[in-house]
């Protein structure tokens, strides 16, 4: 009888430890992957729903498999009222962007590292301006213009963004560059917040 209780206690302790470590180790959604209009609350809702799936993606799970596992969770949470009034449209965009970017970072880590190093130099002035209080959305537009002009020096945002989108001639940019741009500017904004809090 005593051995049975000890055995059951060991099993319950192990199960509890596994479930606690699963919760603690669930991957965070990289903020640089979220749509610009997403709020921190919305990102956290999705993070709580699919963090364990992002862990699997970081370890090799494919995009389609991950989306097929994550989509029903987000849909069910919306239908059952577990999303604090946030709708499926924005939550599913956060989910898909996170899975796509985490998968791409898994497949091409060196591309993201190289992009970040190049962008630190190309966007140094913009990063400093954000650290000193520049609006992040304004900085993103400025950064994108610098990126486009680094590919095509003749790129003129005034001309290109004033014409119909189907006629715009915007240089092709790898998604890793957009991702690392957001990350660098978000990090700079955190520095600004720390400075102003002191």
List keywords for this structure.
198 residues, mainly alpha, 9 helices, globular
Overview of the structural elements:
By secondary structure, the chain is mostly helical. Helix 5 packs across helix 9 and helix 6 runs parallel beside helix 9. The longest helix is centred in the first third of the chain and has 24 residues. The protein is globular, with a radius of gyration of 21 Å. 22% of the residues are buried.
Quick rundown:
By secondary structure, the chain is an all-alpha fold. It has helices spanning 2-25, 40-58, 63-79, 88-107, 109-122, 124-131, 136-151, 157-160, 175-197.
Order of helices and strands: HHHHHHHHH
Rounded to the nearest angstrom, the distance between the terminal CA atoms is 61 Å
Average pLDDT over all residues: 89
Number of strands: 0
| Unreliable stretches | 5-10, 12-24
Supply Rg.
21 Å
Shape: globular
Share of helical residues? over 70%
Name the beta content range. Answer: under 5%
How can the largest sheet be summarized?
none
Q: Helix/strand-derived class?
A: mainly alpha
């Amino acid at each position: 009888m005593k051995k049975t209780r000890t055995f059951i206690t060991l099993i319950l302790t192990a199960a509890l430890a596994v479930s606690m470590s699963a919760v603690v180790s669930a991957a965070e959604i990289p903020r640089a992957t979220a749509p610009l209009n997403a709020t921190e609350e919305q990102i956290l809702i999705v993070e709580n729903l699919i963090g364990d799936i992002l862990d699997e993606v970081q370890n090799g799970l494919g995009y389609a498999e991950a989306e097929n596992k994550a989509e029903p969770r987000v849909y069910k949470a919306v239908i059952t009222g577990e999303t604090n009034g946030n709708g499926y449209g924005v939550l599913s965009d956060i989910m898909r962007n996170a899975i796509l970017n985490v998968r791409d970072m898994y497949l091409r880590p060196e591309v993201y590292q190289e992009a970040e190093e190049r962008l630190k130099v190309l966007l140094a002035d913009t990063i400093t301006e954000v650290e000193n209080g520049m609006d992040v959305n304004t900085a993103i537009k400025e950064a994108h213009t610098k990126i486009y002009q680094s590919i095509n020096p003749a790129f003129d945002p005034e001309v290109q963004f004033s014409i119909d989108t189907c006629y715009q001639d915007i240089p092709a940019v790898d998604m890793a560059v957009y991702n690392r741009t957001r990350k660098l500017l978000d990090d700079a904004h955190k520095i600004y917040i720390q400075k102003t809090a002191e």
